[in-house]
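Box 3.1 — From sequence to structure: Core Histone H2A/H2B/H3 domain-containing protein
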Amino acid sequence: MARSKKKPKKSTQVASSSNAVSQQDTAASSRLKRSKSAPPATPSTPANATPNRPRKPHRFRPGTVALREIRHYQKTVHFLIHPLPFARLVREIAAQFSDSVTRWTAEALVALQEAAEDHIVHLLEDTNLCAIHAKRVTIMPKDMQLARRLRGSTLDRPW
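Predicted structure (token representation):
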């Protein structure tokens, strides 16, 4: 059977003074119990919002976060690629070419990383210009291939 709330009975007799005092005590104690168990009903959400559904997280318009990230990375002076993974990659590639080169100075790794990041950034700039020239805002592999071809890069020609 479903639970239902019991309604208080209405009394029609006149309350005596001792009965009235006991009723006031019970009313005060019930008010205390109610105030401890549940906070007062104050709307903390707008009237049109449903209480069951959580609020949607704030979303920026498309491109806003990208522009903010561009400004952030243009201000920074540190490397974009973490130095330790880059050093591992350099050592791995060097081991493929020659077993005699096993030790690298920190300055050599820093110089190589600066040159590599500079090359990548300029290549991506040229790639972006190729995409803009094609009346697009999204870069594609064909833009990078065209940028490398216009630069005169001779390594790994895909055509």
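Summary of the box: The mean pLDDT is 82.
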